[in-house]
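mind reviewing both lines:
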Amino acid sequence: MKKDLTSIADLSKQEILDLLHEAGALKAEISRQGVVPLARGKMGVLIFEKPSLRTRVTFERALHQLGATSTYLSPSDVGLGVRESVPDVARNLSRWVNCIIARVFEHEKITQLAENATIPVINALSDLEHPCQILADLLTIVDHRGSLEGVTVAWTGDGNNVCHSLMLAAATVGFNLNVATPKGFEPAPAITEQTRKLSEKSGAKIRLTYDPCEAVAEADFIYTDVWASMGQENEAEQRRQIFRPYQVNRQLLSRAKPETKVLHCLPAHRGEEITDEVLDGPQSVVLDQAENRLHIQRAILARLLRNG
């Protein structure tokens, strides 16, 4: 692996598959031993500009289970790019700790941290991508299907950061993806073009549509996310009206195969992008996704800290 994980595109197909395999191996080993000291004596720092439940808890727990320690820095502790420049933060932390796990608003801050740090930088969420989430999703798909080969995933909703990473993962690994968004809310053109180029090599079929029913028709997994992300609160009401036809509900599920599973990266806005009936229903695997954040993040940290 490269020094950093800033994007799914930082990984080759084989590196993604290796991470999924290592996640499973570490899960089994830690269930037996409690701790696998692959990173004993090392420390990770979590710089979070956004609130978090799954990301913070799973990264801290993963570090501890690898024998490392962690420290959390809130927005008021750092003031990333305001109180102190991003390059200066990266250079200072490189002298004290062994990796930086950053959850930020602007992806440029992830890029600046990686460019100026001599230690690994992990993108724990930015406005452009959410690579750790998608790796956990791939692990969930493998848990339920046995492999990624021949899988079709349908995305319905906003062409956001999670969608971007899912597109890049599908194009890199070679599984199929149907993305259904309203007009004006498509994935970023640069991500779409990057996906197209990767798909030419992998053979993945990535299709963009405005019709959620068309997207889910042959899908093995249906994936959705909130319609208004953090920082878009002033658009929330407008988005509710535009995105209503993209809600994952019983009617949309009836257009898919009976065995189709439902994914959501959480937190969910119940009654908006997904109904309670579906989120809590037998086809939902969202808690498996949440658990797999821990397992995949152990694998990511083990790879990066082992090399550092």
Notes: The mean pLDDT is 96. The longest helix spans residues 286-307. The longest strand covers residues 43-48. The beta strands are 43-48, 69-73, 99-103, 121-123, 152-156, 176-180, 206-209, 221-224, 261-264.
